[in-house]
Amino acid sequence: MEFDYIIVGAGSAGCVLADCLGRNGRARILVIEAGGSDARFWIKVPVGYGFTFSDPRVNWRYSAEPDAGLNGRKGYWPRGRVIGGSGSINAMAWVRGLAHDFDDWESAGAAGWNWQTARAVYDRLESHSERGPDGKVRIRGTGPMRVSDLGAQMHPFSSHFLEAARELDWPLTDDMNGTTPEGLSRYRSTVRNGIRCSPADAFLRPALKRGNVKVLKHALVERLLIQDGHATGVQYRVGDQVMTAHASGEVIVSAGSVNSPQLLQLSGIGPSGLLRSHGIAVERGLEQVGKGLQDHLAITHHFAASEPTLNNRLGHWRGQLMAGLQYVLTRKGPLSVPVNQIGGFIRSDATCTAPDMQVFCNPVSHSTQPSGKPLMERDPGFILSVQPCRPASRGEIAIASGDPHDAPLIRPNSLSDAMDCAAAVRAGRLLRLLASAPTIRRVTRAPKGPDISTMNDAEMLENFRAYAATVFHPCGTCRMGRDASDSVLDARLRVHGVQRLRVVDASSFPNITSGNINAPTMMLAMRAADLILDDARSMAHNT
Ligand SMILES: Cc1cc2nc3c(=O)[nH]c(=O)nc-3n(C[C@H](O)[C@H](O)[C@H](O)COP(=O)(O)OP(=O)(O)OC[C@H]3O[C@@H](n4cnc5c(N)ncnc54)[C@H](O)[C@@H]3O)c2cc1C
User: Which DSSP letter does residue 457 get?
Assistant: First the structure.
């Protein structure tokens, strides 16, 4: 078990790394994944998101600690535990983020990371499936990640959301990933020919064909092996068997924003006090490991509709049968489109220097079953949801014990920064404005749950505390920065003070980006591979 690179985690970042590091066909790469195969119907079918949302066979199903800012509620935190990671169970929205998000990475000490660099990497990462004015579908770009405009398959009700934006004088844009990201548009999705295009489909599968990449499934990495300040390999468990694997090059931790800091801490890299309190010998005291947790919270309101929505088709067995048949025969129809259909970046206030809210409008409503699984309602309904883009509050991830099988503690610390409370109120106001647009009023039978139309600012904040929930974008828990006082990684994603060890995943973000974070995570991993290969070349040159 001797490799050049060992990658912990076959998620969004890990799959990109496995492919990009192994393209020369020579580097021997081991990818170790705690979960199993992604060959599952509900992973492949775009609307299957609701089924994997709480399925323990593919999901870590974490629970956050009671969150004071959210009235002491404990948030449910799904994370992918399967080949493809969270990229195999996510809602498939592809959102690059806004230019200033990446310029802020550079300002935070991640030299070389800025919008110009990020944009160039996105261009290599993506290929776009778009419908031209003649109605024909064209592919633009040659990157492995397929990003599709599924407008033709979206529910007709979705057009009301765009009409409402026009009535409110909100900007409209053709594509929030294009040159004019501000405004409402159709979400672009990681779907290829009606099937989810996960990081595993786009990157890991092609990599495996080359023969120099090996994947271990159902293997939990319990700790990193560190010798004289160098990472030399990993200890992992498959069932009852504990084994080791060694890397002559580097160990790259891509276990995601919850598990990467957990693994570092279990391996003696983290806040010294925390490690000692759990009887873990300190290899490298690094106070910022697990700190700096950021996440997006969204406030969501459901409305009963006076016109048919997706509920009319998918909330009834007859409609489900028809949609299933259509999907099996043509790969089209309601099962081929994720539920996030319309949305985008909007300024909640004319004084904002950049869009500060992300909007989601879905032509469907659902309730949550006791198991946590969303259940599509039978009567027509729709959802409006608004998410402050750049929260300032910081939480943390901390091991609960020295046992790698114990879930770490997730402390989101939501709304602990006053700026986030103000943003929560603006999010509520924006949602109310959208709900009051003439077209939305016309298709609304009644609000379900609290009526936002009559709330004052204090009630709006209380409503956010009572109902806002994570939209599953934790990041920043092993972030890049200047030095060990403010971060875990340098700008080349190397762990401060430990040789041959990097963390490459959403935990490496210096700050959260304005939108969904799968695209930025994969972009980060693609550039990380460039940096790792550059460093290997320089080292070979110098020896
Ligand atoms: C329900 C849900 C919906 C989402 N919707 C969207 C969306 O629509 N658009 C978007 O842009 N983003 C979305 N996201 C977020 C996005 O998918 C994630 O941020 C992104 O996939 C994170 O990538 P990652 O590489 O950091 O971690 P992950 O993709 O989570 O990968 C980490 C991998 O490491 C494995 N692992 C962890 N610990 C160990 C260990 N000790 N040993 C071995 N393996 C280990 C895990 O099993 C996992 O496979 C969503 C996330 C979720 C959970």
Answer: H
Active site residue 473: yes
- Amino acid type, 356: D
**Helix, strand, or coil (residue 363):** coil
Q: What's the pTM value of the predicted model, to 2 decimals?
A: 0.98
- Measured CA to CA, the distance from residue 189 to residue 128 in angstroms comes to 10
**Most confidently predicted of 123-137, 355-369, 486-500:** 486-500
The minimum-distance atom of ligand 1 relative to the CA of 12 is 25
Q: What is the DSSP string of 141-172?
A: ---SEEEEE-GGGS-GGGHHHHHHHHHTT--B
H-state helical runs in 233-385: 256-266, 272-277, 310-314, 317-330
pLDDT in tens, 418-439: 999 999 999 999 999 999 999 9
Q: Which of 128, 160, 301, 473 is catalytic?
A: 473
Question: 315 is written with which tokens?
Answer: 């909330």
In sequence order, what DSSP letters do the residues of 342-403 get, joined into one string? EEEEE-SSTT-SS--EEEEEES--EEE-TTS-EEE-SS-EEEEEEEESS----EEEE-SSS-
Specify whether the CB–CB gap between 223 and 266 falls below 8 A.
yes
- The rounded Å distance from CA 521 to ligand 1 centre is 9
Block residue for tokens 């048949």: 325
For residue range 164-219, list pLDDT tens digits in order: 999 999 999 999 999 999 999 999 999 999 999 999 999 999 999 999 999 999 99
Beta bridge partners of 73: 67
Are 188 and 338 a contacting pair, CB within 8 Å? no
- 319 CA to middle of ligand 1, Å? 32
Q: How far is the CA of 429 from the centre of ligand 1 (A)?
A: 31
d(CA 130, CA 383): 26
Residue to mutate (ligand 1; options 187, 518, 522, 524; most atoms within 8 A of CB) = 518
